[in-house]
Amino acid sequence: MWGVMYFSDTLKNAYKNRVKYLYTEKNTYTGIVLKDDPAVALIQIKNEAGVFWWTISSVKPEFEKIIMQKFYQEIHDYYRNNLGCVQLINANNWKTADANLLFDAERYSNTSSEVLAVNRYNDPGHVGENSGWRINPGHYYVGNSVLFEPHKLPVNIKQVKGYPMLVTESA
Asked: What is the pLDDT of residues 57-71, one digit of tens each?
């Protein structure tokens, strides 16, 4: 389903209906609708999803870039103009299947929003049972500190001029 929403009006409309309910229904505890709640600083259109991942390999990157940018612009405008959301909007924070070939196209497709974002991780070689998601007694790390390889720092990011950049997840 990751890439299908970019092409399917049915799924886009379902998404719009869902966020309309989410952002316009009154919170029973605060009496504030989410779109007006000052505690919400940022809206993210999609989390960890995009056509530049391994989702669709038969579409040329130039076409994918246009599809994603058009999709994010439409959804951004829906939040602003139809729902009246005043928060900053971020399109996506995911990575591409090939950073060397697709990173620039991914960032371009996200420029329909005010804020760009990315998830960045450095794996120092965490070893042990269930090491992919927690640290248990007896686990250890086998890699060098990122301080010995500064190019791997999560904040070492190629950025787009004129757009603030968030690192929304890091480890």
From this structure: 556 667 677 888 999
